[in-house]
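Quick one:
INPUT:
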């Protein structure tokens, strides 16, 4: 009989692992907790499925932070070009957008899931849905199988591809961390990543709810909001994947782009990219953020911009003047924060008051209370310690016959296709190693 490989979790990494193990000649059973494979993959990239990114290898790896170096070996075996060639083989054309993100040309995540399912069928992989693995069976330090509802399914190799703890409705319930811990693996603390942030000033956020801000700078600080240095004007971006520059203290990260004000705090692309750094900083002490609404103007030119508005429209009320500078829904809360009456005429604004307005435009501040829970995050940070996994094979260093791939490991990255590429690459390597193990 052929050796039986069990793959636990039919996500991106799990399906590729199962297909590759079958190609290596193994008898493969793919176990999925929900009623169908690829649930989270169907939601990826707003259902368009951001597969990977066009960045070169060094910049690509930098997007995972210090743990990214673990992926060099996996990327050497199966990287972007291999993934795109694989998809093309199954009829999925791809496209690269100007920002480097790679999608199916159809913009349909379903096409990627269908391609992976055909790959499984070609290899004779058996799929069992509605199967929740409750434990991994070990005999004399080696994998012997898994238990499903008190039924023991024998195996010579098990690949844990259970995903993280975000989007639990897709099957990523965090089971993999418990299963790995029960057989002796260390789990690095789980945290939400790519997640919106809750602010202490909830009423202020509610008054601005729904405002979309474009081309702004969001900066996170390791201090209370009232201690932010208003004269510390940043012109460079700082954060993971941005060249490794260290920001000036007490800055945590600073990025420019788009964000949203929500009823509970802040969200949108820039917020999500900075969220993990904020979550980790909250463990060390208070965190606040500052929004620079005019990052392309230095302080002098911002003052000149305001003075020009007041000179040209000196007979207009301040409320109407600000309506030309800010999103309409931001004007009333902005005036309330400034302490200036909305019916003050432009030519009546003093130099001191103009400086106060400029300070708010430069630094709209919130204190961060907490992130939304892991279940609401796009990605789970933390997971099975990489120190206990062989990067060349994804094999456990503790239990013979146990392998890992994807988000269950202590690997996470920014948005842009990096997390999916890591899942595909580690899945391929784990499947090859497990399928060829004797």
């Amino acid at each position: 009989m052929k050796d039986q490989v069990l793959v636990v979790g039919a996500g991106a990494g799990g399906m590729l692992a199962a297909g590759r193990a079958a190609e290596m000649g193994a008898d493969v059973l793919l176990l999925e907790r929900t009623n169908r494979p690829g649930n989270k993959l169907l939601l990826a990239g707003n259902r368009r499925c951001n597969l990977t990114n066009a960045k070169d290898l060094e910049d690509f790896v930098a997007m995972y932070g210090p743990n990214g170096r673990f992926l060099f070996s996996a990327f050497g075996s199966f990287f972007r070009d291999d993934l795109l060639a694989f998809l093309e083989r199954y009829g999925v054309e791809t496209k690269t957008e100007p920002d480097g993100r790679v999608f199916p040309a159809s913009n349909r995540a379903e096409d990627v899931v269908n391609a992976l399912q055909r790959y499984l069928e070609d290899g004779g992989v058996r799929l069992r849905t509605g199967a929740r693995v409750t434990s991994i069976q070990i005999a004399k330090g080696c994998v012997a199988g898994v238990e499903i509802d008190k039924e023991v399914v024998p195996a010579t190799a098990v690949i844990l591809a259970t995903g993280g703890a975000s989007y639990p409705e897709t099957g990523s319930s965090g089971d993999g961390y418990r299963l790995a811990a029960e057989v002796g693996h260390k789990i690095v603390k789980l945290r939400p990543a790519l997640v919106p942030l809750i602010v202490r000033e909830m009423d202020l956020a509610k008054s601005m709810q729904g405002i979309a801000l474009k081309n702004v700078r969001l900066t996170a600080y390791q201090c209370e909001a009232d201690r932010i240095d208003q004269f510390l004007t940043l012109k460079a971006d700082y954060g993971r994947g941005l060249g490794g520059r260290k920001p000036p203290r007490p800055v945590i990260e600073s990025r420019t782009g788009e964000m949203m004000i929500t009823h509970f705090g802040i969200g949108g692309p820039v917020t999500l990219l900075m969220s993990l750094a904020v979550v980790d900083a909250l463990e060390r002490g208070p965190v606040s953020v500052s929004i620079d609404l005019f990052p392309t103007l230095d302080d002098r030119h911002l003052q000149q911009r305001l003075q020009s508005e007041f000179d040209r429209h000196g007979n207009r009320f301040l409320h109407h003047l600000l309506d030309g500078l800010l999103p309409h829904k931001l004007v009333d809360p902005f005036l309330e924060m400034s302490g200036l009456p909305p019916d003050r005429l432009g030519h009546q604004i003093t130099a001191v008051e103009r400086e106060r307005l400029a300070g708010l435009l430069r630094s709209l501040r919130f204190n961060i209370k907490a992130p939304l829970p892991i279940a609401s995050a796009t990605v789970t940070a933390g997971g099975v310690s990489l120190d206990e996994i062989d990067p060349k094979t994804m094999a456990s260093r503790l239990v013979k016959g146990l392998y890992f791939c994807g988000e269950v490991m202590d690997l996470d990255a920014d948005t842009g296709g990096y997390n999916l590429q890591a899942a595909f690459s580690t899945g391929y390597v784990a499947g090859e190693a497990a399928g060829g193990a004797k």
